[in-house]
């Protein structure tokens, strides 16, 4: 039998935290993409992002 996953209704505070986390992740991705050039190691990119 198949059961539907449970959904949780998010509070405005949780939605705000999710939104801020997504913005931060987007900024980290922008930094990583800008740094991703031939000769750049993944360690160097990690150091910029983390």
From TrEMBL:
Name the InterPro entries on file.
Creatinase/aminopeptidase-like
**The protein's name:** Uncharacterized protein
């Amino acid at each position: 039998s198949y059961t539907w996953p449970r959904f949780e209704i998010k509070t405005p505070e949780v939605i705000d935290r999710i939104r801020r986390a997504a913005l931060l992740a987007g900024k980290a991705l922008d930094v990583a993409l800008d740094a991703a050039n031939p000769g750049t190691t993944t360690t160097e990119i990690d150091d910029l992002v983390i």
